[in-house]
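Quiz preparation item.
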């Protein structure tokens, strides 16, 4: 599996707006993309203007498909002006759970 870890620093006055807008991208990825197996949005406990996204896709092609989705394009158009700095990202290959483990967890992504 292919994973990405993104760090986003948001202008303080946009915290709630950023969080609300981000739900649409995360929910769209989990619901509409068969190749998306995880989409976590986390807020730093010490720096509330910093958010971390952790996403897992079947492979890099599934991630590239994600980049072309309407929900991601909408999210970017809404949140990009809220960024305090450029986003930082790290790409990874998952080790655990196994690919079969990720596949088995997919139905649970819709229990939000």
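Solution:
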């Amino acid at each position: 599996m292919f994973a990405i870890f993104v760090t986003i620093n948001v202008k303080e006055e946009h915290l709630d707006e950023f969080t609300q807008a981000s739900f649409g991208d995360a929910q769209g990825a989990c619901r509409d993309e068969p190749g998306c197996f995880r989409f976590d949005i986390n807020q730093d406990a010490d720096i509330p203007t910093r958010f971390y996204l952790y996403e897992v896709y079947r492979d890099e092609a599934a991630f590239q498909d994600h980049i072309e989705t309407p929900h991601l394009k909408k999210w970017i158009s809404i949140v990009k002006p809220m960024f305090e700095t450029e986003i930082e990202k790290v790409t990874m290959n998952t080790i655990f759970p196994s690919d079969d483990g990720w596949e088995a967890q997919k139905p649970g992504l819709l229990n939000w």
